[in-house]
Amino acid sequence: MKKLILMLLLIPSLLFAQSEGVKFEHGLNWNQIKEKAAKENKFIFVDCFTTWCGPCKYMASTIFPQAKVGDFFNAKFINAKIQMDKTKDDSEEIKSWYAEADRFAKDYTVRAYPTFLIFDSKGNLVHRIVGGGEADAFIAKAQKALDPNTQYETLLAKFNADPQNATIAKAMAAAAKDAYDKETQAKAEGIVLSTLSTDQIFTKDNVELLLSSASIKDSKAFNLIKDNPAKFDAVSEKVKANDFLSKLLIGEAVNTKIQAKEAVDFAAIEKELAQKYPTINTEKASLEMQPRYFAYTKNFPGLRDSFNKYIAKYGSAITAGQLNDMAWSIFEGCDDPACLKAAAEWSKLSLEKEKDAPMYLDTFANLLYRLGNKEQAIKTQEKAISLLTDATQKEQYVATLQKMKKGEKTWQ
């Protein structure tokens, strides 16, 4: 199936009430919102969004309407929305907030969307979250705003006052990550690592810290993992040292070439990395990156050949999601029968790994249709629809089915 569509609807007004889920204030100005928070002794949750931001729309249409999300936010917060951009369709109420939106952007350094700002009952900024997420994870992030020991702004003040305190630095690193404050996160992580011995560093509690800090090539954490792979593997349940480091190195090398608008020679990259990092094997990471790169550059024969090579060598480790993503890339952008046939085989393999998954059935149906097997495509799409419970997805799948029946294109 095509990737989950995030842009489902535009938010019709700045501050609005919903029939369920999170109840956002409507018709109040900022001072009135603060007064209400003080009266009810609640924190203030502010969703800073734009009309063009896909994740903003996803949060508005999919996460905030959920009952469990509403139960948490309505009990703990006075909730508000502020539209940070300006459009010709803005209502008078949205326009009345233009000056306040500009002030929020300046005073609270709102630069990415969505940004969620959390204030205490007196209107003091105590926490921020940058980026959306699924319901349970987002609730967990917002829960941190209620505790001074995990509040981003509170921790930042403590960290700046006592930057060598490892306990504060560790909490700061976690809060900075949620706030997308990479500079503070890197600084805090460095402080934590510098205070620990090698044996103290390699514990299960420090795995996430190591991985986050090691995302910068040749950093202290990067070299710690590189020089102690066995110790890292002994405490890491998510990823092995070589897999993590090799993906990081290959990804950075490829991105550097792309940004410089240079051709990517994977063999040359592997050779160069082998000379600089002889203990890190980049073969698998390189082979995994190649089809993604060819999909990005729309070199579909290259995508087909490299992904088939990857499947042949690492097929048991490949996921249904990876197979589906590559198959969909071919379907969306390529009309070469050989490539489409290869993609159909990948799609079939994804269904062997996860039988009767509607998402993968949808991809297979679309590929069958584009290959000219209309009858089987329709049957497969009908099966996908019968397995769906989400009304929005079902509507999208039904629309695709109708196009198939009418003989219309289901691709762009």
UniProtKB/TrEMBL annotation:
The keyword Signal applies. Residues 7-147 form the Thioredoxin domain. Residues 1-17 form the signal peptide. InterPro entries: Thioredoxin-like_fold (IPR012336), Thioredoxin-like_sf (IPR036249), Thioredoxin_CS (IPR017937), Thioredoxin_domain (IPR013766). SUPFAM superfamilies: Thioredoxin-like. Keywords: Redox-active center, Signal. The keyword DNA repair does not apply. This is DUF255 domain-containing protein. It comes from Sphingobacterium puteale.
